[in-house]
Amino acid sequence: MSTRSNRSWLPRLSTGLWYGYLVLIIAFLMTPLLSLIIASFDSGQTFSLPFEFTLEWYRNAVTSTSVQSAVDSTIRISVPVTILSTVIGTAGAIAYTRYSFRGREYFKIVALLPIFFPLILLGLGMSMWASVTGLGYGIVPAIIGETVWISPIVMFVVSISALGVDPNIEEAARDLGADTLTIYKDVLLPLIANGIVSGAIFAFVLSWNNYYIVSYLKGSEITITTWIHGRMTQGFTPVVPALASLIFYASLLLLLVAIVMEVRSER
Amino acid sequence: MSVKEFVRSKVPAAIDRPGRRLASVSSLGPPGGLMLPLLALLAFMFVGPIVAIVLFSVQTENVISLSVADWTLEAYREIVRGTLSGEGVYGEVTLNTIVISALTTVVAFVVSYPAAYALATKVRRFKLPILIALIIPLFTSVNIRVYGWVLFLINDGVFDLLAGSVGLDVPSIIYTRSAVVLGTVYVYLPYMLFPIYLSISTIDDSLLEAAADLGAGRAKQFVDIILPLSKPGVIIGSLFVFVLSLGAEVEAELLGGGTVYTAASNISYSFGYSQNWPLGSAQAVGLLLITTVCGIVILRTIDLAEIASRGGSR
């Protein structure tokens, strides 16, 4: 039965090739991140391969006072942004997914539009607007600016998991005499909790890694991404890859948690 | 919302389309309290900045405060004149921007389509890890990722080491327009891949089975079913990539090394170094128009319920 064995290895080979292609794409996506990690262990003052292994730049990154103050500013922006955009985005998602009303599709379009704007455009506009309105520059304007971009993303993520929740459950709760508040507290929010948590983690990671908006609104504050950007445009500083790698490790860890939560909420 | 849809929301679930149903915590009008924070935020810090860009674009040169009554089209005139005559940077900037965005869209499409197709139809095992690996780079700062490419492409960088180890001596493409396109394709590839993946995932398997029963081979199934039905994803992905790569600044700055100017880097130059807000704003208005139109088209096309029901684990 040679035809039969032909039939079994050919599809397997083609499936293997498709997987191989996806692995190539992933390798492409990981190339710059791996390059950063390789460079972060290089002992030289200027990056050139082959190299000697060192952890010195990580030590420098962690102990540098300018890095510490950049981390401090970043946290003072990211934490409020995470809280605000999680609350605002979740409220928007509940409005969009759990209610039917006139203009619901328009609400979705308006609410999600900022996601599609190049960040540099948002940053520039916000910077001029902050000057005209007297909002000024610094931590608070940066928080407001980032929240504008991140709330819609949270709304998107939470909407996806809220749309997976069967509306009949709320209907049933209502029939059993639950009022709106009880339905929220005991039925809806627990059911979409995983989606909210993953939305919050996305918000935190995106805020932490934001460059454009913060660079236009930060005023004299220096955050991690703007600190790195300042150094990287002035030639090679070995602390930069080390710090960038550290941020990547932390983001990776948080994202894996977020993705696990989102996947669990879909099941 | 039409009467029909209102009625539909009241119809028992069994005869309603799944995924289209809307629950009624309360169906009495829009949930103002839930929408207000987001709408107020966007009115203040999204609509406001857009208005600021438009208003500043008609101000006289080198102002940083608005005087609305005193407006001029001088900034627009300068850009149009510059683009038409080819003098100064505008001709080159416009050309660069269009070439980079168009090339990025085409390359991202060619690279993504097979990957999206494989992911939607071929991959059964390890689907989640593959999806995660594709998403992860999106969450690292753009400037950090682009800087990673600089370290890869730079003299004696990772690429030289790899090429050298197999005995190749290839000049690096860093500080050329190709390097910028590499950067933008890299950054925006997932925005092409995921819409196409989602639209291929929503194709009903029974359609392909029916086609197979009627004697259509794999190639014919692909050309007559998968390709046309994945068109919405291709359109959304292309608009997404085109628009976002119009905003490529860091890519041009770091990978172009000060030799390649795009609209975004020129806009940022107008604001940063030459402190000419009206000129920068006038350039930004063009970008703004294209972005808004594309964004609305994308949002009108995507259906969140569809993504929720099909996008996850199929």
From TrEMBL, chain A:
Sorted UniProt keywords: Cell membrane, Membrane, Transmembrane, Transmembrane helix, Transport
Signal peptide range in chain numbering: none
Pfam family, any one: BPD_transp_1
Protein topology in the membrane: Multi-pass membrane protein
ABC transmembrane type-1 domain ranges (all copies): 71-258
Entry's transmembrane regions: 21-41, 77-97, 109-129, 149-166, 187-208, 239-261
SUPFAM superfamilies membership: MetI-like
GO biological process: transmembrane transport
Gene Ontology CC annotations of this record: plasma membrane
Entry annotated with the keyword Coiled coil: no
Subcellular location: Cell membrane
InterPro entries xref list: Bact_Polyamine_Transport, MetI-like, MetI-like_sf
Main location: membrane
Family: Belongs to the binding-protein-dependent transport system permease family. CysTW subfamily.
Protein name from the UniProt record: ABC transporter permease
UniProtKB/TrEMBL annotation, chain B:
PROSITE patterns: ABC_TM1
Sequence intervals crossing the membrane: 34-58, 98-119, 131-154, 174-194, 225-248, 282-302
Keywords of this entry: Cell membrane, Membrane, Transmembrane, Transmembrane helix, Transport
Subcellular location: Cell membrane
GO annotations of cellular component type: plasma membrane
Any matching Pfam family: BPD_transp_1
GO biological process per UniProt: transmembrane transport
Residue span, ABC transmembrane type-1 domain: 94-298
UniProt topology in membrane: Multi-pass membrane protein
Family listed: Belongs to the binding-protein-dependent transport system permease family. CysTW subfamily.
Identification of the protein by name: ABC transporter permease
